[in-house]
């Protein structure tokens, strides 16, 4: 892994949840999918065996998720949510007026949010890059993928409490 690899902030709860998911997928999950593939294989002709193809597809998705989790956990910085000082940083909850509408979201990796209702924007997204390091009350704009300039005003920056 290169030295400029992306470091992802995770709360301890998110790290524990993702570690447990990785453990499950790497052990029990792999065993279950292998059994399903073997059972479908025993049904005969693999060309027209929908159960076999579905199980193989699921296996591919599961292996991709395992690789994603391994990479994420390897580069994760685990700790408490950053204490808000009115400055936008990864792991903070931001309330902003975006293109005239107020929105509240978590800045960071979607894995942090777990089961919350908060929208999550990556700090590497055009919006995230535009507001990272900005203070409450600051106005900025960014260019959306469709080429439009979008105005943003930071209204509030809060510590993420996991909910």
Topology:
Layout: E1 8-10, H1 12-41, H2 50-74, E2 76-78, E3 92-98, E4 101-107, H3 110-113, E5 119-121, H4 126-131, E6 139-143, E7 149-159
Parallel strand pairs: 1-2, 4-5
Antiparallel strand pairs: 3-4, 3-7, 6-7
Helix pairs in contact: 1-2
What report would you give on this structure?
The protein is of the alpha/beta class. The protein contains four helices and seven strands; from the N terminus they run βααβββαβαββ. It has helices spanning 12-41, 50-74, 110-113, 126-131, and strands at 8-10, 76-78, 92-98, 101-107, 119-121, 139-143, 149-159. Helix 1 packs antiparallel against helix 2. It is elongated.
The strand count comes to 7
Which spans have pLDDT < 50 for at least 5 consecutive residues? 1-5
Average pLDDT, rounded to a whole number, is 85
**Strand residue content:** 15-25%
Helix content percent band? 25-40%
Provide a quick synopsis of the model.
The chain is of the alpha/beta class and 163 residues long.
Keywords summarizing the entry:
about 160 residues, alpha/beta, five-stranded mixed sheet, 4 helices, about 40% helix, about 25% strand
């Amino acid at each position: 892994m290169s030295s400029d690899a992306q470091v992802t902030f995770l709360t301890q709860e998110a790290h524990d949840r993702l570690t447990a998911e990785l453990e499950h997928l790497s052990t029990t999950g792999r065993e279950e999918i292998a059994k399903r593939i073997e059972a479908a294989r025993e049904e005969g002709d693999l060309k027209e065996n929908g159960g076999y193809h579905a199980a193989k597809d699921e296996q591919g998705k599961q292996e991709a998720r395992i690789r994603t989790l391994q990479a994420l956990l390897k580069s994760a910085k685990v700790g408490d949510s950053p204490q808000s000082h009115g400055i936008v940083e990864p792991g903070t909850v931001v309330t902003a007026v975006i293109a005239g509408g107020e929105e509240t979201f978590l800045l960071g990796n979607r894995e942090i949010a777990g089961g919350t209702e908060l929208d999550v924007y990556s700090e590497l997204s055009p919006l995230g890059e535009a507001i990272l390091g900005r203070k409450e009350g600051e106005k900025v704009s960014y260019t959306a993928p469709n080429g439009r300039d979008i105005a943003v005003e930071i209204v509030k920056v809060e510590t993420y409490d996991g909910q």
